[in-house]
Amino acid sequence: MGLRIQNNIAAMNAHRNLSIADSGLSKSLTRLSSGFRINSGADDAAGLAIANAMRADIASFKVATRNASEANSLLQVANGAVDVIGNMLTRLKELATQASSANADSNLTKINDEAGKVIDEIDRIAGSTEYAGTNLIDGTFGVAVGTCSANTVAASGFSGISGMTASSNYTFASTATSIQVNHAGGSETVSASAAVAGNTKDISFGSIGLTLSINDTWDSDSDYVITAGATGSSAFQIGAENETNNRIDVSLGNATIENLGSSGTSALTDVDLTTAASARNALDYIDDAISDLATVAGDIGAFQNRLSFAAANLATTIENTQAAESIIRDVDMAAEMTQFTKNQILMQAGVAMLAQANQVPQQILQLMG
User: Is residue 122 within 8 Å of residue 269, measured between CB atoms?
Assistant: First the structure.
């Protein structure tokens, strides 16, 4: 048996195993106290990267869920206004039916006056229904400038435009002192000139409800044709990525009196109940308007259903992604407790064995007696 004083190999071996047990015990304590298997990059670098990416997606999915809920609230506001307009069209048809009958001759003026007020209120509701400052059912929801061109030069002179109707063309004929706009809804000329260098100027066309912002490059010798966005829709983000499939484009239609009925024989603006003959014609106009409004209401309902399905899918996605992230990041408490108990016993045994190993060199003193 070799007895050495300088290097106690048995004690060194016991200390090494004790250090391993102590490290394992510390790691188990950290995991058990935090609930996470990965507490730093050293625990699992690849797993941490994957889990962090999933955690970011989960946060984004939660915001997307709120987006879907808020979009549904927006549609509910629009749907409420459309329901009211539908009731008003029903009343308008009652008045037109009454005015079409010979027994209503003496009351035609009164009937027509009420009908006019009903029509005005339809237009007021369509123009004033909004959500967070955004008009919903006047035909401007989501409408943006699609294209702009000039007959002779590049159309760089406009800075913005508001009040446009979806899928419509606006022609601006300008001179040094005025701008004329021509549109399906009418024509208007206002006094205007290009803005001062470096600035913009707002030109309002009140009868059409249009505001044009021009800058100092506006060419007074050219005719501009500006086209509203073809779809007239707004995008709601219902996913975590910048992809088309992660957005829903919502369009709400146009419930103004200029649009209701325009797909048929005429629009509500042509309703006249001053004679029985014109009242009978008005019945056709009103029926067309009811049909147009039904299309608007149907689109709103379809988008509401689509958003509900999207929200349900997001809830499932969040749950499943959270479960996947949990498998990577979270600790299995039962398994880790088993590991903790093992390391705790090894620590106790290691301390005892290190003490025994440190006593071995003491036997050399007996040889010196």
Answer: no
Q: What superfamily does domain 52-139+234-322 belong to in CATH?
A: f41 fragment of flagellin, N-terminal domain (1.20.1330.10)
Q: How far is 40 from 44, CA to CA, in rounded Å?
A: 7
Picking from 104, 72, 84, 96, the residue whose alpha carbon sits closest to that of residue 301 is: 72
Taking the whole predicted model, whether its pTM rises above 0.70 is answered as no
Selection from 125, 157, 161 nearest residue 143 by Cα? 161
Helix (H) or strand (E) holding 248: strand 247-250
Q: Is 163 left (phi over 0), alpha (psi -120 to 50) or beta?
A: left
Within a 10 A sphere around the Cβ of 85, how many other Cβ atoms?
Answer: 27
* % the chain with pLDDT above 90: 34
Helices of type H across the chain: 9-34, 45-99, 108-128, 276-329, 333-359, 364-367
DSSP string, 75-99: HHHHHHHHHHHHHHHHHHHHHHHHH
User: Between these two residues, 89 and 29, which has the higher pLDDT value?
Assistant: 89
- pLDDT value of position 350: 84
Q: Domain ranges for the chain, please list them.
A: 52-139+234-322, 145-228
Query: What CA–CA distance (Å, rounded) separates 132 from 321?
Result: 32
75 pLDDT more than 50: yes
Q: Which residues contact residue 183 at a Cβ distance below 8 angstroms, ignoring those fewer than 6 apart?
A: 165, 168, 169, 170, 171, 208, 210
- Digit-coded pLDDT (tens) for 321-343: 999 999 998 888 898 898 889 98
Beta-carbon count within 10 A of 192 CB: 22
Query: Residue 262 and residue 309: Cα distance in Å, rounded?
Result: 33
The residue type found at 314 is L
